[in-house]
Amino acid sequence: MDIRLHDLLLMKKQHPCGSREMKVLRTGMDFRLRCTGCGREFMVPRHKIEKHIRQVTHADEQNPDNGA
């Protein structure tokens, strides 16, 4: 699964605050994620989090440059 720094992950289950979107702050054997709803940061092993991802929005797709 291609997950890069600053990507937004849409999860299958929601965080206790109600948000389903997480921002990737660190990748590797573990992911450091930030909940976009409450701002809490946490680390999760890669093999656990990859099962719970519904959609990945890459950082370059979020802020497209218009050739400027």
Describe the protein in words:
- By secondary structure, this protein is mainly beta.
- The chain has one domain (8-62).
- Helix content is 12%, strand content 38%.
- It is built from 2 helices and 5 strands.
- The protein has helices at residues 46-49, 59-62, and strands at residues 8-11, 21-26, 30-35, 41-45, 53-57.
- The protein has a 5-stranded antiparallel beta sheet.
- Strand 2 and strand 3 form a beta hairpin.
- The radius of gyration is 12 Å and the shape is globular.
- The model has no long low-confidence stretch (mean pLDDT 90).
Keywords, please?
five-stranded antiparallel sheet, 68 residues, mainly beta, 2 helices
Question: Could you give a quick summary of the protein structure above?
Answer:
The protein is mainly beta and 68 residues long. It is 12% helix and 38% strand.
DSSP strand content:
35-45%
* Sheet having the most strands: 5 strands, antiparallel
Spatial gap, N to C terminus: 31 Å
What is the N-to-C order of secondary-structure elements (H for helix, E for strand)? EEEEHEH
Number of domains: 1
Low-confidence stretches: none
Spatial arrangement of strands, main beta sheet: 4-3-2-1-5
- Looking at how many chains there are and whether they match, the oligomeric state comes to single chain
How much is the radius of gyration in Å? Answer: 12 Å
Share in helix: 10-25%
- What's the overall geometry? globular
